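Hi team,

Filling in the usual template for the complex we talked about on Friday. All components are listed, including any nucleic acid strands or ligand strings, so the model treats them as one assembly.

SUBMITTER: L.P.
PURPOSE: interface mapping
COMPONENTS: three
RESIDUES: 1231
SEQUENCES:
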Amino acid sequence: MAGPDLAVSPGQGAVAPVLAVTGASKSFGAVRALEDVSLELYPGEAHGLVGENGAGKSTLVKILAGAHHPDKGTVQVDGKEVVLSGPAAARDAGIAVIYQEPTLFPDLTVAENVFMGRQPLRRGRRIDAKAMHHEVVELLGPLGVQLDPERIARGLSIADQQIVEIAKALSLQAKVIIMDEPTAALSAYEVERLFRVVENLRSRGAAVLFISHRLDEVFVLCQRVTVMRDGRRVLSRPVAGLSADELVRAMVGRDVEERREGGAQRGEVVLKAERVTREGVFTDISFEVASGEIVALAGLVGAGRTEVARAVFGIDRYDAGRVLVEGKALKKGAPGVAMAAGVGLVPEDRRLQGLVMELSIADNVALPSLRRLRRFGMVRRAAENRFASEWVTRLRVRFGRYSDAAAALSGGNQQKVVLAKWLSRQPRVLIVDEPTRGIDVATKSEVHRLLTELAHNGVAVLMISSELPEVLRVADRILVMREGRLVAEFSHDQATEESIVAAATGQLEMAS
Amino acid sequence: MSSETAVGQPGQDQVAAALPESASLAPKPAVPLFGKARVLVRWESALVVALALTILLGALTSRQFLTSENIFSNVCLLYGELAIMTLPMTLIVVSGEIDLSIASVLALSSSLVGYLWDQHWPMPAAIGAALAAGLACGAFNGVLVTRFGLPSLAVTIGTKTLYAGIAEIVLGPSIITNFPTSYTTIGVNPVPGTHQLLSYSALVFIVLAVAFAMLLHATPFGRSVTAVGWNKEAAQFAGIRVKRLKTLLFMVSGLVGAMAGVLYTFRLSTSEPDNGIDLVLPVVAIVLLGGVSIFGGKGTMLGVILAVLVYCGLQSALLLTNFNANALEIVTGGLLLLSVLIPNGGELAARARRFMNRYRVSGTQ
Amino acid sequence: MSTFAGSLRQPAGGVDGGASSRRLADLIFRAREFGIIAVLIVFVAVTTSVQPRFVNSQNIKFIFSNAVIFALLAMGETLVVVARHIDISVGSVLGLSAYLSAHLFSQVSGMPIVGVFAVGLAIGLGCGAVNGAIVAIARVPSLVVTLATLYIYRALDVIIVGGGMVVASTLPNSFLAIPSSSWSELSSVPYLAMVIAALVAFTAYCLRSFRSGRELYAIGSNPDAALLAGIPTGKRVFTAFVLSGGVAGIAGVLWAATYGTIDSTAGYSYELTVVAAVVVGGVNIFGGSGTVVGAALGALLLATINQALYVLGISSFWDPAIDGFLIVLAISLDHWITVRLTSALRKRSLYHVV
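RESULT (copied from the run log):
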C-alpha cells in the first residue's frame, strides 16, 4: 500500500467530523513520535485506535489531552480549530480522556469527585448537595450503572473508577471521549458493562476513541478503526468487512519475522512453581522452566502474570504453594533469598522499579551486588565501575560516563542497564517482564538476540510479554494466563497468534 | 498489572498532562550526573565560602573568636552533642524519613543515668542501661514506621512527647548533680593532647563524623540508604531489605541520641528531665542546611559537617558580639529558609511572577 | 462476533449499589467524633467516681480555659493539615501576638479590647501569609518552612520583648475576665467556650458547604488530581496558612487574657500539643479527611485528661508521656482503620472474584 488506506462509510461524507486532527507531527529530540498523522471522529461513533507499542498512539492522545503541543498540524473540534494549550483547554474544547488508571480523590464521595470545582450552588454560593446528588444519579442512570453517589471513592474497583471518570466527562459536556486501554484491568463482566456504557455515550452523539491492544474488543465495539505504525496512520476503515488478519498485518507491516530455530538444548529444570496461589490474584500456578529454554508467559494485562513474577521473586508474598530453584524451595517474600539462589527479575516498570533514575549507571548496575564488591567493608567507585563495565560494554549501552545518571539515557539503553544489572550476577534464572516495552525497534532485536543467547548458555528465561510477535519469535514454550489461572500451553511449533489470543480471551479451552 | 489499583494513584500520563511541558516526566536529554555533581559541589562550595565568611566575621568582630579558649568553651562544649546528633539524622533524612524524637531520647538517657546513679548503680552499668534504652526507643520508632507503615513525621512527633514524658516520670521532681568528677571532667577540661581545643564531645563528633561519612558514601549499607531514599520500590527490586534498613537507622539514631545524653549529663554535671529537649529543631535545620533533601536520596555527610561548622561558628561569633542570645534563633531560621529557597532560585522567581499575574488578572478562578 | 456473552457472570453477591459501603464509611468517620466524646465521658465518669470534687466549677473553668486556646489552634491547624501540609509555627505566632497585643494596653491609653483583638489577628494573618507565600510559591515543604518561621517568629518575639514582660496589672479587668466569665455561676462553662464552639461549628459548616473548603480536602486527598481538576491549589494553600496564622493570632490575645503575664516564652512548644489534638481528633496527617469539630474535641479531650490526672493526684510529670502515647495510639488507630476500611470497601465493590 502506497499511502494510508482510508475508506469512509457511505453516508458519513454528509456529516461533519466532531474531531479532526490534520497533519499532526511531533518529535522528541531525534525521535519522530508522530509523522503527518490525521484522524477524523464522527459524532456517535466508537472508533478504535490500534497499533503496536511505540506506534505513536499515546503521543496522539497526549496531544489531544493538551499535554503536548504538536510541532505541526491542527486539531479541529466541530469544524473550529482549537489550540490545546493544556488540560483545561482540552476540557473546554469538549475532549475528555479516561486513562487506564483514573485519578480520583479517595477521601471524597463519588458525587464530589464528579463535580469537584464545579459543584452546583444554591443561595449564597453554598454547595447544593441535593442537586449534586441528583445530577450524578441522572448521569449514572442512563449508563446503566449502580453506584451510590454518596459513597467515598476509596476502595472502588478500577471499573467503577472509570465510570466515575466517564460521568465526570459527561458532566463537562464532552463531545469526544478518549479511552486509553480501558479494559486492561477489567474482568469480563466489567468489560461488558463498559461496552454498554459506550453504546449509551454513542447514542448521545458523543464520539468515543477506543485505544486497545485487544483486537477482539475493537471488532465488537467499534464502527471504524485506525491503525498506526511507526508514527504514521496506515489505515482508517470501517470495521465491517475488515478481518483480524488484515488488521494485524497493517499493525505489523511485515510478515512475522523468521522464528528462532526451535529445539534449544533443554537442560535440567531450574525453576519450578508448584501450585502457587495468592488469594484474589492468581490460583494454582504450576510451571517449570529448564535451563536453556525461554518460556513466555502470555495473556492479557490484568491476567496476573506480573503478580506471579513478583511472587516468585519474593517481592510479594503468596498464600499457598512453593517455588523451587534447582530443587530447593525458596523462602517466600524474600527477594534476597531468591537472588542468592540465582534468580533475577527485570521488572515491568523500569523507571519506577527497574532503576533508581537519579543514581549513576554504575551505581544502578552494582546496587544488587554491592556485598560482592566489598573490601574491608567498603565499596570503591573504581570497583563499581569495573563491575559495571563488563556487561555495559557487552550490551553496547550508549552513554557518556559511568557517573551519568540513569535518567539521562534513552529507554532502550535504560533497559540494557537493567539487564546489565542482573546479568552481572550470572543468574541461573532470569525473569523479564515486558522486556521491550517502549523501546525502539533496533534495541528490541538486540534484546531478543540477547535472551536467545542467554538461553543458549544455559540460563532459564521466563519472559512475560504482551507483544505476540515477540512471544512467537523468541519463546520455546508459551504459557497463557487468564484471570489468574494458567489456561493453555503451546510449544514453539504449535503456537499461533490466533491460538494465543483465543486462550487469553477465553475462547479456547486448555489445549496442548 | 494488578487489577485493582488504589484509588488516588495517578498514572504518569495524568501527571504529565497536568504539568507544563517543560516539567514533563520524559527524561531530559543528557543531564549527566557530572552536571548534577557540579550542582552538589556548588552546594558544598557555598558552605565552604559561608564558613570562611563566618570565621572572618568572627575574627573581625572579636579578638577572642579564634582563641582556643573560645573554640573550646563556646563551640565544642556548647554544641558537641548537637553536632553528634546531626549524624544519624542525616542518614535518616537521606533514607526518606525523619526522627523528631532524638532529642527526647537524649533527655531520657540523661534522666536514666541520673536516676540509676542515684540508686547507686555503678556508672558503667547506668550508662549501659541508658544506651540500651536509646536502642529500644529507636526500635520502637522503627517498628511503628516499617511494620505499621505509619508516617515517620507523625510517629516521631508522638514519640518525641512520649520519651520526654518517660524522662520526666523516671526522674520525677529530682535533679541529680552529684556525679563523680572523673566523668564530669569532660565538661570542664579539653581532651589532653589537642592543644586545649577539643572537648570530649567534639572528639566523639569527629570520630563519628568520619565513621558515618564512610558508612554513607563507601559501604553497601550506605549506598542502600541512598537508593531507598531516592526510590524505595526500585531498592526493593534490587534486593534491599527496606524495612530492616529503616529500623536499623532508627535504632542507630536512638543509640546516638542516648550517647549524646550521657555526654550532655556529664558536661552539665546535671541530670534534669528537660535536658536537651530543644535540640531537635536545630539538628534538623543543620541537616537541611547541609544540602540534604527533605524528600530523601540527595545529600552528603560533608555538607552536613560543613553546615555544623557554619552553624556553630555563626552562633559563637554572634554570641561574642553580645548579639541578643535568644535572637540567634533568627539566624537558624533564616539559614534554614535560605537552604531550601536557593536551590529553587530561578524557578522560584518565575513562579512568583506567574502567581502575581494570576492574582492581578482574575479575581476568582 | 461477540465473544463475551458466554463469559458474562453475575456480580458476586448482587449489585448493592454501594449504599452499605457508604454507611460503613460514614459510620467509621462519624465514629471518631463520637468516640472522642465517649472517651471523654468515660474519663470524667471514672475520675469523678474516684474524686467527686472533679466536677466543680474550678476544674471545669481550668479545663475550658486550657481547651479553648488549643481548640482554636487545632481548628486553624486542621485547615492546613487536610490539605496535606503542616504548620508548626503556631506556638511562636501565638507568643508574638500575645505580647504585642497585650503590650498595647500599656502603650495606648484607653485601648479598646476590640482593637487589641484586631491587632492580634493582623499579626497572625501576616505571619500566616509569609508561611503561605513560601509554601505556595516556592513549593518548599511546609514542615521546613514552618520550622524556619517557628524560629524566626520566636526570635522576633524575644528581640521585641527583650527582658521585659507584660504584667497583669497593666491589663484592664474586662479583658482579663474574658476567659472565665460565664452567664451564671451555676453553669461554669465560660462564655468564651461557647463562642469558640460556635466558631468551630461555623468553620465546619464552611468547609463542608463551600467549594473552596471542599477543594482543601481534595488537595490533601490527591494533590495531582487536584491540579488536573483545575483547582487553584496555590491560592487555596496560601489561604489555609493565612487563616491558620490568623487563628493563632487571636489565640494569642486570648492567651494574654487568660494568663495575664506575658513574656517571651508564651506559647512555647504549643505546636506539639496542637498536632496531638488534631491527630487525636481524627484528622489524617496525610490530609484529605478529618473535621475541625474532631480536632476541637481532641483539644478538649487532652485538656480534660490533663486536668483529670492532676485531680487524681497523678503528678503532672505524666502529662507529656500520656500525650505522646495518645498521639501514637491515635495515629496507629487511624492507619489501622484506613487499611481495614479500604479493604472492606474493595470487597463490597468487587464484582468478579478470581
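MY TAKE: The domain at 46-55+62-321+330-335 of chain B is CATH 1.10.3470 (ABC transporter involved in vitamin B12 uptake, BtuC). Chain B is about 70% helix and 0% strand.

Thanks, L.
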